[in-house]
From TrEMBL:
Compartments, record wording: Membrane
Entry protein name: Sugar phosphate transporter domain-containing protein
Membrane is among the record's keywords: yes
InterPro entries, per the entry: EmrE-like, Sugar_P_trans_dom, TPT_transporter
Source organism per UniProt: Dioscorea zingiberensis
Main location as per UniProt: membrane
Pfam families noted in UniProt: TPT (PF03151)
């Protein structure tokens, strides 16, 4: 007989909606706050900002896994596995730092348009580095993905060449990390879920970013402390922003766990569009019709690409 199961089903649905809302708000929140700090507030230290994020991810990952037991702790089995995680961490650092640098020069809306080309770079790296080949139709769907960004670049009133190059590098590094992860941690004994991978990658990232910060952004700690004496809000911005960076990873993991891979892809595509609209409303950066057409074309291309991949599995 029908009846009682409806309540748990409904609460489960509300839980998933809550998770997705948390994932969206933390993702878009960290992006907008990065933009505000690096561009509008004038805190010109993207490497130090990334190091703050990674420090928070190290501490909060440990609390979530070792104390709160959100997921079981997985151990690093060998020196070789640690070396592989370190390589992933290096690429991950490159993508986050480049993404933050690009936010100094580009509006969030354009940054997201370029970021939407991740599937193109993933397909290229997968083609070059693995024997895995997709069906030809899958590669055809990547044409609107790239064409859309080229059109958006031509119609972007705030276009900045250096910012654009760094943003493309960040997108490529993000794609390279996902392909490398599939290759390096593919054997059963080495597979780590994303929360455990972050637990090991984040402290390595801090170690890698520390010398880079000291050399390239000298006296950043002194400058930040001097800023804090004038305006204590900078400390709260950095703390909140860093905690939010961890929350992005946590909610991403939970959404992946509670929904299907396909739902995640669809939500991910929509998230970029939501971020664009929110950033335009907040920062009021000028947007051209050409730019919006280009971005829409990229999003349509990404949707077609995920459809083609699903059908040819």
């Amino acid at each position: 007989m029908g009846g009682p199961p409806a309540a748990p089903q409904l609460s489960g649905r509300f839980f998933t909606i809550g998770l997705v809302a948390s994932w969206y708000s933390s993702n878009i929140g960290v992006l907008l706050l990065n933009k505000y700090l690096l561009s509008n507030y004038g805190f010109k230290y993207p490497i130090f900002l990334t190091m703050c994020h990674m420090t928070a991810c190290s501490l909060l990952s440990y609390i979530a896994i070792a104390w709160l037991r959100i997921v079981p702790m997985q151990t690093v089995r060998s020196r070789l596995q640690l070396l592989k995680i370190s390589a992933l961490s290096l690429v991950f650092c490159g993508s986050v730092v480049s993404g933050n640098i690009s936010l100094r020069y580009l509006p969030v809306s354009f940054n997201q348009a370029v970021g939407a080309t991740t599937p193109f770079f993933t397909a290229v790296f997968a083609y070059l580095m693995t024997v895995k080949r997709e069906a030809w139709i899958t590669y055809v769907t990547l044409i609107p993905v790239v064409t859309g960004v080229i059109i958006a670049s031509g119609g972007e009133p705030s276009f900045h060449l250096f910012g654009f190059i760094v943003c493309v590098a960040a997108t490529a590094a993000r794609a390279l990390k996902s392909v490398l992860q599939g290759i390096l941690l593919s054997s059963e004994g080495e597979k780590l879920n994303s929360m455990n991978l972050l637990l090991y990658m984040a402290p390595i990232a801090v170690v890698l970013l520390l010398p880079a910060t000291l050399i390239m952004e000298e006296n950043v700690v002194g400058i930040t402390l001097a800023l804090a004496r004038e305006d204590i809000r900078i400390v709260w911005y950095l703390l909140f922003n860093s905690a939010l960076a961890y929350f992005v990873n946590l909610t991403n993991f939970l959404v992946t766990k509670h929904t299907s891979a396909l739902t995640l892809q669809v939500l991910g595509n929509a998230k970029g569009a939501v971020a664009v609209v929110v950033s335009i409303l907040i920062f009021k950066n000028p947007v051209s019709v050409t730019g919006m057409l280009g971005y829409s074309m990229t999003v349509v291309g990404v949707i077609l690409y995920s459809e083609a991949k699903k059908r040819n599995k």
